[in-house]
Amino acid sequence: MLECILNEDGVYLTLVEGETRTRFHAIWLRDNAWDAATRSADNGQRLIALRDIPQETRISAATLTGATLSVTFAPEDKTVDYDVSWLLQNAYDRTDAAQPGWTKSSVETWDAELMSRIPVASFASVSTDPAALKTWLGQIARFGFGKLADGPIEDLALMKVVDLFGYVRETNYGRHFEVRTEVNPTNLAYTGLGLQAHTDNPYRDPVPTIQVLYCLESSAAGGENMVVDGFRVAEQLRSENEDWFNVLARHCAHFEYAGSDGVMLRSRRPMIELAPDGELIGVRFNNRSTAAITDVPFDEMATYYAAYRRMGEIIDDPAMEVSFRLEPGESFLVDNRRVLHARKGYAGTGTRWFQGCYADMDSLNSKLAVLEAAEDAAQLEAAE
């Protein structure tokens, strides 16, 4: 049975269910009120600022009626109703300290074993069936990449992939870029050389968080695409040597690119990026674009390079890679903050023509959330 207990001075209340006790501060509850005077009914945005809430806000009364918690705040003498399930879903009263490098439960890290269940969908299916699109986008959010098959074989077909969830992010390479052998290339990606697994554009701040590569021609021998989960790499490095993990997370590397006229891009970010609470939120690894590393103290530089070397060895380990060959009309998408991609070398005979572009995960996550909400609403309506 759920109970509500108010502390003596009204600074917080506690929801008690069995042995579970979850506390909520008065100021937090007032700030998260969903009444018409506090939130817009149209878009859910706040209509007031924190300065409009009295600093001395306290709870003067709290009652539970079924799944609804009614809270009265002083000195406003304002009563607000809360859905208990929403409160528990958004509870912040936790005592467990997560290990640096933790990931959300919605994230699944992987290695070569994912070869047997590569996230793939049909272009026609995700273009016409919202449920299929939701499943595919959900796989990308979970694994950090996904393939599409049976797409149109036409110039700029990759734009139709981005249209499924968001918008192209234009860069100095344009709205899209061609990936095929060129004379005097401005980037090693435009040669037949193999490329070490890497994240793209680490010299940008922020980096494009999605990359799309679309195959239009593929008769040259070789050139298989490979992906590596940077989060799994970071996890393995941490399990082998926590000091190495920490030194790459604690100090910034420098990345730069000046391969074309009028462009000089630079960024300063760690190779392993953590949120303030230790969540693993990004990996930047690109040997071609790493500049002189100058933000590591002298006494830690040897450790840093040992960690950097080992991270590269883990990335290069075939046990970490998922590889596949793209045929015309096929494409793949990667979360560029997490998944490293690579290409094996290909022969100079035949043709190999890919087109690529960048987009961002916020649009993908938004589209996924909308599809999930629509599905939940449909299921609720059907149940009624």
From TrEMBL:
Its cofactor is L-ascorbate; Fe(2+). One of its GO terms (molecular function) is metal ion binding. It comes from the Bacteria. Keywords: Dioxygenase, Iron, Metal-binding, Oxidoreductase. Residues 122-358 form the TauD/TfdA-like domain. InterPro entries: AlphaKG_dependent_hydroxylases (IPR050411), GBBH-like_N_sf (IPR038492), TauD-like_sf (IPR042098), TauD/TfdA-like (IPR003819). One of its GO terms (biological process) is carnitine biosynthetic process. It holds the Pfam family TauD. Belongs to the gamma-BBH/TMLD family. PANTHER family: GAMMA-BUTYROBETAINE HYDROXYLASE-RELATED, TRIMETHYLLYSINE DIOXYGENASE, MITOCHONDRIAL. This is Gamma-butyrobetaine dioxygenase. It comes from Parasedimentitalea marina.
